[in-house]
Specification:
A: 293 residues, mainly alpha, B: 308 residues, MetI-like fold, 2 domains, globular
Chain lengths: 293, 308
């Protein structure tokens, strides 16, 4: 189509300029109403988390603190489970991250560089299982397996289960990344007699650092937020991560301690929000699904 | 580490590969050793549990009593029991409504609408709105669940305050709608980002041409945009449906109540298997969920393959 196609707008018989302006005005009005309503929909539930932690007497309603205080945070020390659970979350997240990166990186490298017979079938099966087998659908055997291995109520049990669920997607993301890396450095290192392990450690891994960082953060955020797996695998409150402990704070009977829940909830949420925003800015982040619960 | 994992060889130093062999540094044997640790973990903690679910669903396994020591093979009895249990039918229906309402209408509908109005709109208000949607997605579920418990509270909740002290007991009178809205709030960002990415792949000249030809926004959307990003929308839809079918987070708000009104399949499985310890029966329901997942995933992989 050429510029002629624009003619009808100004041709005789078209709606008058006033009618067009009026229609445009209604359109704008509808647009802004929509934006304000959606903005309120997303902002209002979140406001509580911004205000209540700093209120000496928070209620369930979101309102600016009636009596501003920072005292809710030091008071967290008085609860025997709050701060230790953040440490548990950190241990779980870092351990799973290390395990997933350490196993997915060599696997992704090998799958990218070598034509192993049956590679495509293997990749397909991995992708299929990792999307089909969620923590929810497999909670019975996961519970039994960890029980039989004697790992109920241990960090190791949670880490192994979460790693098993995240590794396939980790391999895919890293394989994409390695596929896009040139092979020339690896080839020259090979000519000089470097072993595959040396090549992986000294050449591939340093080049793949941005990819590894993205996978690392992705695993960290997933594990930090995961509720279901530690919920079914840990019994002892001292070993539970923050995701489960905060649920216990509000699900147990009696008056909910809003000072505790709000300040603890904020402290628990900040690391993943900050991590996401930083990584997103640096690498243009893309989350994939995985074991979500 | 599990005992099984220890059987797999540690990352090797295969000096056996002569430097001149092959086009790449790794040969097949080395490659297998590189893949083995990852594969071992996935096999033990992902693939084995899935297969075990299928087997357990055919037994009367329980955690206590005679069946714990000596579970019997009972064939399809668990499935017959499920079909005869109105709570199972209820749970399946609740799950379908939850997936349709929160994933299809809520997340995809709202996510696409946001991506559509964000196209070509730069400015502070857009950035603020986008960050709000994304932060709602990043905050851990167990915190979001409480935010919604507070927001929907009958007497003190912010929603009722905004509506003029309405005192509506949302979680009691509209439990399913409540968790649908909660999940829409929590998950819209993913669809918004994915649709935004898809829209940015459209050559601007197409829309420009259509606009100059006098097509309204709606016509552009229907005749040009939707047909060209159909593949993206479909993969998005399949992914979020899959996740929502398996979403356990309504448990955090309603624990399945009141009166089983929000008892989705994951919650039904959890209650039967890990609260009442009827592991065989829970596994049978899990197997049904696995089949639902499998169907969605197979369609998803087909679509992906076609697109590549």
């Amino acid at each position: 189509m050429g510029p002629d196609a624009a003619m009808p707008e100004t041709a005789p018989g078209a709606p008058s300029a006033a009618a067009i302006t009026a229609r445009r005005l209604v359109g704008r009005l509808a647009f802004y109403t929509f934006v304000v309503v959606v903005g309120a929909f997303f902002a209002l539930p979140m406001l509580w988390l911004a205000f209540a932690p700093f209120d000496a007497h928070p209620t369930l309603a979101a309102h600016p603190p009636t009596e501003f205080t920072l005292g809710n945070f030091p008071d967290l020390l008085k609860n025997p489970y709050a701060l230790p659970s953040l440490l548990n979350s950190l241990v779980l997240s870092l351990a799973t991250m290390a395990l997933v990166v350490a196993t997915a990186a060599p696997a992704a490298y090998a799958l990218s560089r070598v034509r192993i017979p049956g590679r495509d079938v293997l990749l397909y099966v991995l992708l299929l299982f990792s999307s089909v087998v969620s923590g929810t659908a497999a909670m019975v055997p996961i519970f039994l397996l960890v029980f039989e291995l004697g790992l109920i109520n241990t960090q190791a049990g949670v880490v192994l289960v979460l790693a098993g669920g995240l590794i396939p997607a980790g391999i895919f993301m890293l394989k994409d990344f390695v596929d896009s890396m040139p092979t020339s450095y690896e080839e020259s290192a090979r000519v000089f007699g470097a072993s595959p392990f040396q090549i992986l450690r000294d050449i591939v891994l340093p080049h793949a650092r941005p990819g590894l960082a993205v996978i690392g953060v992705w695993v960290f955020v997933n594990v930090w937020s995961n509720f279901l797996i530690p919920f079914i695998l840990t019994r002892d409150p001292g070993k539970m991560p923050a995701a489960v402990v905060i649920y216990n704070f509000y699900s147990e009977g009696g008056q909910a301690n809003l000072r505790l829940i709000s300040s603890f909830g904020l402290l628990y949420s900040i690391p993943v929000v900050v991590l996401y925003l930083v990584v997103n800015r640096r690498y243009g982040f893309r989350f994939y699904g995985g074991l979500k619960g | 580490m599990s005992p099984r994992e220890a059987e797999t060889p540690a990352p090797p130093l295969p000096a056996s590969a002569p430097p001149e062999a092959g086009a790449t540094a790794l040969r097949t044997r080395g490659a297998v050793a590189f893949i083995a640790p990852a594969l071992a973990l996935v096999a033990v903690f992902l693939i084995f549990p899935a297969l075990w679910t299928l087997y357990l669903g055919l037994t009367d396994y329980r955690l206590t009593g005679i069946q714990a020591a000596n579970p019997q093979f009972i064939g399809l009895d668990n499935y017959a029991a499920a079909l005869g249990d109105p709570r199972f039918g209820n749970s399946l229906w609740v799950t379908l409504v939850y997936v349709f309402g929160s994933a299809v209408i809520g997340q995809l509908g709202l996510g696409f609408t946001l991506a559509w109005i964000f196209r070509g709109w730069r400015g502070a208000s857009r950035t603020v709105l986008e960050i709000l949607v994304i932060v709602a997605w990043i905050i851990p579920s167990s915190v979001v669940a409480f935010l919604w418990i507070a927001f929907l509270d009958t007497h003190d909740g912010t929603l009722n305050a905004v509506l003029g002290n309405a005192d509506v007991p949302w979680l009691f009178s509209w439990p399913l709608l409540s968790i649908i809205v909660f999940n829409t709030w929590r998950g819209t960002a993913f669809s918004m980002l994915l649709c935004g990415g898809a829209l940015s792949t459209l050559p601007p000249s197409h829309l420009e041409t259509a606009r100059l030809a006098g097509a309204s926004s709606w016509q552009q959307l229907r005749d040009i945009v939707l047909p060209s990003i159909r593949g993206h929308l479909l993969t998005n839809l399949l992914l979020i449906s899959l996740w929502t079918f398996n979403d356990f987070s309504p448990y955090l708000i309603t624990a399945g109540g009141p009166n089983f009104g929000t008892e989705t399949l994951p919650i039904y499985i959890f209650r039967n298997a890990l609260t009442n310890f009827q592991l065989g029966y829970g596994a049978a329901i899990s197997a049904i969920l696995l089949v639902i997942n499998l169907v969605i995933a197979l369609v998803y992989l087909r679509v992906l393959r076609k697109r590549n």
